[in-house]
Design goal:
The chain has a single domain, classed as RRM (RNA recognition motif) domain (Alpha-Beta Plaits, 2-Layer Sandwich), CATH 3.30.70.330. The chain has 3 helices and 6 strands; from the N terminus they run αβαβαββββ. It has a 4-stranded antiparallel sheet.
């Protein structure tokens, strides 16, 4: 397993209608490194966003899609999503504000 620092774990936030609706329940969705564990994701969120306290982390491994361009066949890269549930007294994550 790779030696991941907390700033390497979270790659980008996922902004969809479903993830925006879940923000009312303090659930935030991120694209994370494929080798990251739940405890590493929890540590990264708490260090990167001040005042946050993570209650739970749910992860999903997504396989790459089959793509074709003419006769050439290939796959896109594997990804991993994490849904982070914050505690009720935790501060909100500010990158999602105003969306």
């Amino acid at each position: 397993m790779a030696d991941l620092k907390y700033y390497d774990v979270i790659q980008k936030p996922i902004i969809t209608e479903k993830s925006m609706a879940a923000m009312g329940e303090k659930k935030y969705t991120f694209l994370v490194h494929t080798d990251a564990t739940k405890s590493q994701i929890k540590e990264a969120v708490e260090k990167m966003f001040a005042g946050t306290k993570v209650k739970s982390v749910n992860t999903m491994n997504l396989d790459g899609k089959n793509k074709r361009r003419g006769m050439v066949v290939g796959k896109t890269a594997k990804t991993k999503k994490a849904i982070v549930q914050l505690t009720s007294e935790s501060a909100d994550i500010e990158i999602f504000e105003g969306l």
